[in-house]
Amino acid sequence: MTITVADLAGVVYSAGKVFDGLRTGRLDTANFLRSGSTHGINSRADLALLEDLRDAVMEVLGHDGDIDADFVCAVNSQISRSGPLHPGQLRTADQAIGVQTRYGRHTPTALDQAGLTAIIESALVTGDDVDAALNLFVDIAKAQPFEDGNKRTALLVANRHLIAADTGLLLTIPVDDTNPALADEFNDLLAQAYLDRNPDAVKELLRDQGLLEISDAAE
């Protein structure tokens, strides 16, 4: 099965909407990925975000090797191209980058290549490809290895695993345009996972609400 950038429209839209406040609608996002049309994209910020996500998806679809630290860095270099000063480079300890959550601040230790490799390898030690993808998303997002774009990077890396394993599934972020409570629940559970409070709950929500058949995820 040949997978195109447009097939990941649901992935791109959900990530942009939940993580970055994307204001472009679902259909216009899909049209942009399919044809490059900017109809319905009403801000430069949205256009830059969608261009970065599109190019990161192309990086994912063009990758035919293992998921390793170099690949994760390559995805981040595309996905955060218009944001931080050093896209694709692991952050340093002196940057003291962290995430403020409703449960307190999460400031993980900065990683080197070996540390990121260890996280990837640990996430993949499971006999279930969906479990491995969920581990990749949560563990990379929690580690915050980059200056910016960590959750978006983690999501696309997780999808690379699902695609490479030929699962027929894609991982999206739970979002319902008519029910903001769903995305809020996801963000709450991810914050809990960051601080080791009920870390499996966000994976359960992703399994129930985030996994889509590839044919459905583009709609």
Which key features would you list for this structure?
219 residues, mainly alpha, Fic-like fold, two-stranded antiparallel sheet, two-stranded antiparallel ribbon, 10 helices, 56% helix
Please give a structural write-up.
With 219 residues, the protein is mainly alpha-helical. The protein has one domain (5-217): Fic-like fold (Orthogonal Bundle), CATH 1.10.3290. It is 56% helix and 5% strand. It is built from ten helices and four strands, in the order H-H-H-H-E-E-H-H-H-E-H-H-E-H. The protein has helices at residues 9-20, 26-35, 44-62, 69-79, 113-124, 129-143, 150-164, 180-194, 200-209, 214-217; strands at 99-101, 104-106, 169-171, 211-213. The strands form two sheets. Strands 1-2 form a two-stranded antiparallel sheet. A two-stranded antiparallel sheet has the order 3-4. Strand 1 and strand 2 (104-106) form a beta hairpin. Helix 3 packs antiparallel against helix 4 (69-79), helix 5 (113-124) runs antiparallel to helix 6 and helix 6 crosses helix 9. The longest helix has 19 residues, at 44-62.
Give the count of helical stretches.
10
Task: Give the low-pLDDT segments.
Answer: none
Mean pLDDT: 95
Please state the CA-atom Rg, rounded to the nearest Å.
16 Å
Distance between the termini: 18 Å
**What is the CATH T-level topology?**
Fic-like fold
How much of the sequence is in beta strands? 5-15%
What does the main sheet amount to? 2 strands, antiparallel
Number of strands: 4
Per CATH, the architecture is Orthogonal Bundle
**Total count of domains:** 1
Indicate the structural class.
mainly alpha
User: So what's the overall shape?
Assistant: globular
